[in-house]
Design brief:
The complex is a heterodimer of chains A (556) and B (201).
Chain A lengths: L3 H49 L8 H11 L9 H52 L2 H7 L2 E3 L5 H14 L5 E5 L6 E4 L7 E5 H6 L2 H16 L2 H31 L20 H38 L2 H14 L25 H9 L5 H11 L5 H17 L17 H5 L6 E5 L3 E4 L8 E5 L4 E4 L6 E6 L4 E5 L4 E3 L10 H9 L20 H25 L3
Parallel strand pairs in A: 2-4
Antiparallel strand pairs in A: 1-2, 3-4, 5-8, 5-11, 6-7, 8-9, 9-10
Chain B lengths: L1 H74 L4 H16 L3 H23 L2 H5 L1 H36 L3 H7 L12 H5 L9
Helix pairs in contact in B: 1-2, 1-3, 1-5, 2-3
The chains are: A alpha+beta (556), B mainly alpha (201).
Chain lengths: 556, 201
């Protein structure tokens, strides 16, 4: 009884097939950018010229001139001096109009090119901001806490799996939610993390948990998180006009005040010729982007399943885990769509009509049945009754532990993909004080002082503009602190400062001396000053380009 | 006249061009060989690193054994045979070098430990002792770690062996004496008792 050889061949075939598919999809994603950038910059150029160009010609003016030229007496007939003067003038006008037309066209192409480069820069910035957003932000978004002694079993499993995969051991985090799910995050293996929900630990047995963790390890080993960051930034980029339009429409629906700086004048002169570009930019590209991103994510899920089977050499564990999660459901309320591809099973809630669509084209995860079927190819030895039993256990668990909103997650983060880019860290960031400070009840020096903090204390600082910082101390005192106190950024999760052990470990480290401390940089809208400065410089260059083009070619 | 000059010029450039081709080809060949050699070295280093991963876990297991034997001896004083067997197996594993020898010694140690555990089954007081169950747990964990390290090593060994036996790397491998590495496989006798035949069920 040695079926191992044929089994492994199948796994390897599947892995090679998945790799080809991913390469193909990434190529399509990149190709779909080209018409998008071309179309959008063409539209933008049209709009700029219609708003700012000096030589806006109404479309029927030369027709009218032609008509009046035809209305002139024919060359053979008797003509007055006046007639020929009018004719000359009309001909001169026509020639001038023609010249302006040509000029306008050239100008438009130049503006289009400038816009195209600008858009490519925006794509780069988007990738940058997604790639540089710290893993701790993702964790904080999901309300994760570092694993404690209660999760020793999962920790040990992760350690063993990383020996098998030849990777550094990722940090384990726990999300206190009864819904069984898990995810991996981090741009490179040495800094990656694995988060599991409390429900997953409670529902799954040892071997099943091993299967799920092996799946997450495979995501880390295959560098899926990095691939997905690239694909996601392309997807957001392609969806940007659509998302902004959605937000604009939503804002207009909600407010009684109909005036908006973006509305009214923000209309590209609409002609039939531009319709395909409109349709592509606002309807086809967003759907295409979402579909491609989902397809890549799906193929990576199959890949991770196959790799997990190869890593544990025990596909039955993963199969049973999938069956249990199938029975229980894995919809995590409050999970943002932008990071849904990182999860073990789809965290999105799908209901009603959308499920017809989302189940196939736009889902980031393949249906669990398909995943089970594919895994069964590697290991036909699992009887169906085992899986049915597992699904029943999952159903019972789901009934006993209904999915509630995870405490501590930011509600707004679940809204749409844009919010990840525009919101700073809603959970705050951990800093150490480099001076004594007093915590006030209100952002006012005259208000009641709540606590005194010493140099070296740990506080959570929130992104909040104003003369005072909103802070949370380790003993849960919430208040305000003057901005003049210098801070030193720590690589910790906000939840970690409430844990005495990690707090003491962090406070035992020597404080940086005043010389080594660079003044604390605040961020606006989640971007650091460097990022803002480069963006601003970039914008200046783009607008200078447009300005130069406009002034050079519209003067005569 | 002019055409003749032009032709001459063309002939001269093409002659230079023709002379360049072998030079370029040789340079490409050299670059290719260097990169291939480096890849082979990298693969070999990786197998060694993977082997050291197994070694660490084997040592860890060996260091657990004296404690375990001490604990069992506290309750089961008369089982000298098993104790000496375990001690011998442990000594043999410490002396063994290379994947094949280590794998064999590891198999013998596993069998000896199995017998020790079977002996421990007969002493309920020993099973109830917190120290013993903790040691048992740690031992099981280390065994799992050895299994994973073994898998990682065998994977690397397989890819390295495949590399040095396939064209064109096999030529380079024979020149620079890249030897195939042996797999770390458990003794067949150890494996037999856990094989289950589903066909008869």
């Amino acid at each position: 009884m040695t079926p191992t050889v044929t089994q492994s061949v199948l796994v390897y075939d599947r892995i090679a097939q998945n790799r080809r598919k991913t390469v193909f999809l990434v190529a399509i994603a990149i190709l779909s950018i080209v018409p998008f950038i071309a179309g959008l910059s063409y539209l933008a150029a049209q709009w700029t010229l219609s708003q700012l160009g000096h030589h806006v010609i109404s479309s029927d003016i030369d027709e009218r001139l032609q008509k009046s030229l035809a209305a002139q007496p024919p060359p053979g007939s008797v003509r007055t001096e006046y007639d020929s003067a009018v004719e000359r003038e009309i001909e001169a006008d026509l020639a001038k109009i023609h010249r302006t037309r040509v000029e306008n066209e050239i100008l438009q192409w130049k503006v289009t090119i400038v816009f195209a480069f600008g858009l490519m820069g925006v794509l780069g910035l988007m990738f940058w901001s997604l790639a540089s957003s710290p893993t701790s932000q993702v964790l904080a978004m999901c309300g994760a806490r570092p694993a404690g002694p209660a999760e020793a079993e999962a920790k040990r499993l992760l350690e063993n799996l990383s020996i098998g995969a030849g990777l550094p051991v990722p940090k384990l985090y726990v999300i206190d939610s009864p819904v069984p799910n898990a995810f991996a995050a981090g741009m490179d293996p040495s800094r990656s993390v694995v988060a599991v929900t409390h429900g997953l630990l409670a529902l799954l047995e040892h071997r099943e948990l091993e299967g799920v963790l092996a799946h997450e390890m495979s995501h880390i080993g295959n560098r899926d998180t990095r691939l997905n960051t690239i694909v996601t930034s392309i997807a957001i980029f392609l969806r940007l006009p659509y998302l902004m339009r959605q937000r604009y429409l939503q804002a207009r629906r909600q407010s009684t005040n109909t005036w908006s700086p973006a509305g009214g004048r923000f209309r590209v002169p609409y002609t039939l010729a531009l319709a395909p570009i409109y349709v592509y930019v606002f309807f086809i590209a967003p759907v295409l982007a979402a579909a491609i991103r989902a397809a890549i994510s799906r193929s990576r899920e199959f890949q991770a399943d196959a790799d997990a089977a190869l890593l544990t050499r025990y596909p039955e564990g993963l199969l049973r885990a999938l069956a249990k999660i199938r029975g229980c459901g894995s919809a995590l309320p409050g999970a943002n769509g932008l990071i849904s591809h990182l999860y073990f099973s789809d965290p999105a809630q799908v209901e009603g009509l959308m499920s017809l669509f989302r189940g196939n084209v736009l889902a980031t995860h393949p249906p669990i049945e398909t995943r089970i079927n594919r895994l069964m190819e590697f290991n036909g030895g699992v009887p169906i009754s085992v899986l049915e039993e597992a699904a029943r256990v999952g159903r019972d668990f789901g009934r006993d532990h209904p999915a509630l909103k995870t405490p501590g997650t930011a509600d707004s983060m679940g809204q749409d993909e844009l919010s990840v880019l525009t919101t700073g860290s809603p959970m705050g960031r951990v800093h150490r004080l480099l001076g004594d400070a007093t915590v006030y009840d209100q952002p006012d020096l005259k208000s009641a002082p709540l606590a005194r903090l010493k140099t070296g204390d740990l506080v959570v600082v929130f992104d909040d503009p104003g003369k005072f910082r909103q802070i949370l101390t380790h003993n849960q005192t919430f208040g305000y602190m003057v901005r003049s106190v210098k801070l030193h950024k720590m690589d910790m999760l906000p939840a970690e400062i409430h844990d005495p052990k990690t707090r003491e470990a962090a406070m035992a480290k020597p404080l940086p001396t005043q010389e080594t401390v660079v003044a604390h940089k605040d961020s606006i809208a989640g971007l650091t000053y460097t990022q803002l400065a480069i963006t601003a410089a970039f914008a200046v260059v783009v607008f200078a380009g447009i300005f130069i083009v406009l002034t050079n070619f519209s003067g005569n | 006249m002019l055409t003749a000059l032009l032709l001459l010029q063309a002939a001269r450039t093409s002659a230079i061009f023709m002379a360049m081709i072998p030079v370029a080809l040789t340079a490409l060949m050299i670059l290719f060989t260097i990169s291939l050699y480096n890849q082979l070295v990298r693969a070999r280093v990786r197998t060694r690193e993977a082997w050291s991963g197994i070694d660490v876990q084997l040592k860890r297991r060996a260091s657990l054994i004296p404690n375990l034997v001490q604990t069992v001896r506290g309750y089961a004083t008369h089982e000298h045979e098993v104790f000496s067997e375990v001690a011998q197996a442990r000594g043999a594993l410490a002396k063994a070098s290379g994947p094949a020898a280590s794998a064999a010694a590891d198999g013998i140690l596993t069998q000896a430990l199995g017998r020790l555990m079977a002996v421990a089954e007969n002493y309920p007081a020993l099973k109830a002792a917190g120290n013993f169950s903790q040691l048992q747990e740690e031992l099981a964990d280390t065994e799992e770690k050895i299994a994973y390290a073994r898998q990682f090593y065998n994977q690397n060994a397989m890819s390295y062996n495949t590399r040095i036996q396939t064209f064109p790397a096999n030529m380079l491998a024979s020149w620079f004496r890249f030897e195939p590495v042996t797999f770390f496989t458990a003794e067949p006798s150890v494996n037999e008792d856990i094989q289950v035949n589903f066909a008869k069920v």
